């Protein structure tokens, strides 16, 4: 594992038909810093000083897919430790936010939910790498019930007002119309390596020995994205040592992937 990262996820871009219904969720429920530089743009930040990690562009004419199509499965926000995850869970409970899943993956503990547009979100904390279940050189993630009562016992007092202030963009999980071409694109163009193949219909990819920066799945048999502006994910940005100047590519399902040099 290199002493400094060679790959860092930076930003996710999405389209919404209505920014007004998203703002209370991200600002008040999750506690992110929300800014509106213009009437059609909502940027979300972990702290007042940090750059935008998610940007929504409003397009009332964008189409909401009538069937499952390739695109976002979830955006995953990584908090620094277990007490920070406890703060997030307690905040969601206090605000009566619907929670779709609470999972222990061996490498991590995760909370799953969706925003008002139906975009999936994961908020998680990693276990120390020395404790990750392994299968040879690959990670051996699994899905078990999270010990949420034990998690809440780690709630600090008083809880911080901004639970995601020290979070980072941990990974992006995509639904793809075909696994093989998507896997080939991401391994060849981004330089990420296969980290796990044991989940049916999914592959987990990462750089620097991480469990996954990019996940791909074909669960539910998503169709290829139709032409035209759709709601949901349009693309994401990563910084990598593989490039010396920014460039944007399109994956096999027309998701824009922007690669930037590492600072």
Describe the fold and architecture.
Strands 11-6-7-8-5-12-15-14-13 form a 9-stranded mixed β-sheet. Strands 2-3-4-1-16-18-17 form a 7-stranded mixed β-sheet, covered by helices on one side. It has a two-stranded antiparallel sheet with strand order 9-10. The protein is built from 4 helices and 18 strands. It has one domain (7-261): 2,3-Dihydroxybiphenyl 1,2-Dioxygenase, domain 1 (Roll), CATH 3.10.180. The model has no long low-confidence stretch (mean pLDDT 96). The chain starts with 6 loop residues before the first strand and ends with a strand. The protein has helices spanning 23-29, 82-94, 148-152, 179-190; strands at 7-16, 33-38, 41-45, 54-58, 71-79, 101-104, 108-114, 120-126, 134-135, 138-139, 144-145, 168-175, 193-196, 202-206, 214-217, 232-240, 247-250, 256-261. It is mostly beta strands.
In terms of topology, how is this protein built?
Layout: E1 7-16, H1 23-29, E2 33-38, E3 41-45, E4 54-58, E5 71-79, H2 82-94, E6 101-104, E7 108-114, E8 120-126, E9 134-135, E10 138-139, E11 144-145, H3 148-152, E12 168-175, H4 179-190, E13 193-196, E14 202-206, E15 214-217, E16 232-240, E17 247-250, E18 256-261
Parallel strand pairs: 1-4, 5-8, 12-15, 16-18
Antiparallel strand pairs: 1-16, 2-3, 3-4, 5-12, 6-7, 6-11, 7-8, 9-10, 13-14, 14-15, 17-18
